Amino acid sequence: MASLNEPPIEKINASFATTETLPARELRVHIIGAGPVGLLLTALLQSMEGFSVRLYEKRPKYVRTRMVKLSSYLVADSLESYQADHIDGESIQAIFDDEELQAGLAFRQSIPLDLMSLLRKWVQGFCPLNTIEQSLSDLIDARASNSVQRIVAVMTAEEAVAMLEPGDLLIDCTGSNSLLRDYLATGSALGHVGANTLNIRLEYALVITFLYGQKYDCNEYCKYSKNIENPHYKFIPMVHRTHYDGSVSHVTGIVNITAKEYAAMPSRFDGELLRGNFPSVAQSMDRFIDKIKQETNGEILGDLEIVRIPLDLYRARNATSRQWRTAGPGDHPFVSSPVFLAGDSAIGSPYFQSISLGFECAMFLAGLIAQRDLPLRDMLDRYELYTYKQWLRVYMRSKMIKHNKDLFETIDDPLALLDKLHIY
Ligand SMILES: Cc1cc2nc3c(=O)[nH]c(=O)nc-3n(C[C@H](O)[C@H](O)[C@H](O)COP(=O)(O)OP(=O)(O)OC[C@H]3O[C@@H](n4cnc5c(N)ncnc54)[C@H](O)[C@@H]3O)c2cc1C
């Protein structure tokens, strides 16, 4: 078995012929991680001819309860609807060519109806992550095709390398703590945490979710008026982050906290712990909730659910094994078996956009892999370029959201507000 930590040889790999394509035989694709992105990719490849997929997942059951929002661009059928988001519509035009966008729309048209109808349902509103994972998992299991083999295992990087046969494809969908990200850049720091990662920490936040027994919706005016007595710890429900299911509103929002507060908090907790240990944050939440109650005469159902998270914006500098093919030891498995990162293992973004971004990249990757006569080098280059463009898009959107949020948080203090404005 080749070692992952072999020092790379700085040479152009002779075996990297520019015309080399994927083998003509049935292609073995190893997908590690059956979270939303690994599952979507599996479902896409399952419906195409010529692939046998091995899907590895360490969790025996899907139990993540958090509510998530998917973007409507995932089911867009025109350039207009793809660019409908008012924050990133213009960035999309600046970064992508119309031809590229049209190709993405055409791929959506080819997605089988069983899968597309799920996506259409999920983009309507707010949905439990568990439902997305379970529905995709059930769909894969229920389809007549038996081209997917599911394996419950905690994979290690060494095992992932050892199972590769020449021509196999390996796709790492293991999330933000990606199994293979730091092995994709050859160099002296190979395998070290962060060796292939650019990370920008935007802030620390509490994600606070609660259920409310009346219809409640929030826009920017509501965010302002309900926080008017909160000089700090403003609770900011995300756009479209409230969802009324007929009797209950699901509300999720974020509260900015300091690094010190982050370090002092458990990773998940409830309202009681918040009130006992972080009273200033709790008072701010209570004032916000009281105003909702005054307006709509409802009650909170149950308790607050609180998760503390660092809001990181990051990307893998290499989202494929391209470097191994040009500068790595010629006999390493990554030379003859291309590796791709998809989902949070490739790009991470805060403000509730990551699943959509991961799905978008998964669709592009499935479309690339389906082109069996495409030279491998082009496939790797095109995926690198595509993920880089998606990164630029989400980078700009996230920075804009963060900037707007910073302004909002000082809206009642004109001098502090002016400090944050750099007009030109
Ligand atoms: C509180 C909170 C709220 C969020 N809300 C939203 C939202 O509204 N919208 C949105 O788009 N995003 C949201 N996100 C982010 C979203 O959950 C992630 O972007 C998404 O889950 C990433 O999907 P993924 O498939 O790439 O990775 P993951 O969901 O992390 O899945 C990775 C999978 O790989 C498996 N795995 C990992 N390592 C191994 C291994 N060694 N061997 C085998 N299996 C392994 C894991 O068990 C897991 O199933 C939220 C995140 C948080 C924390």
What is shown here, in short?
By secondary structure, the protein is α/β, with parallel strands linked by helices.
How are the secondary structure elements laid out?
Blueprint (H helix, E strand, L loop, with lengths): L26 E6 L3 H11 L4 E7 L9 E3 L9 H4 L6 H7 L2 H13 L2 H10 L3 E3 H14 L5 E5 L4 H6 L6 E4 L24 E16 L7 H7 L9 E9 L4 E9 L1 H6 L3 E3 H7 L1 H18 L3 E17 L5 H6 L5 H4 L2 E3 L5 E2 L5 H16 L6 H34 L4 H6 L5
The structure holds flavin-adenine dinucleotide (FAD).
Describe this structure in words.
- By secondary structure, the chain is α/β, with parallel strands linked by helices.
- It folds into two domains: 256 residues, 3-Layer(bba) Sandwich (FAD/NAD(P)-binding domain); 110 residues.
- Strands 7, 8, 9, 10, 11 and 13 form a six-stranded antiparallel beta sheet that branches.
- About 2% of the residues have low confidence.
- It binds flavin-adenine dinucleotide.
- The site of flavin-adenine dinucleotide has 32 residues, from helix 1, strand 2, strand 3, strand 11 and helix 14.
